[in-house]
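Form P-L/3: holo structure prediction, ligand FE2/S2 (inorganic) cluster.
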Amino acid sequence: MSMVAVGPVAAAGADRVRALAPALLGWRAGRRVIDVGPLEELPLGQGRAFVFERRRIAIFRQRDGRLFATDDRCPHRGGPLSDGLLGEGRVLCPLHGFAFDLATGCGPAHRAVVHEVHVEAGRVVVLIAEPA
Ligand code: FES
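OUTPUT (holo model):
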């Protein structure tokens, strides 16, 4: 999985920073609107992450084409959800294997923060929810 940074990023992800080019488009319904680049740069069946204002956001493109976005931080103990296994509208956290519904964020005992994501003119756009 790769990480894209608007702000500072760990050195390990620096070589992948250029994979997407997130840009703040403005505000919509009280949420920040982020353009994260062309849809074709998101591989099917994988997650990607970027940092916006020190907040890691994960984007998932399922093999059936559906897109999801969450905070890239598992609500259990902070695992990187973008590195988890993706399928059937869920992601399995790579640290302890808890499953989270990507539409609602619901997990076995915790809820991940989810964000609205869709495609506009071929580009992936995320509306970042405020922290719960
Ligand atoms: S940190 Fe994600 S399940 Fe524990």
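COMMENT: The first strand starts at residue 2 and ends at 5.
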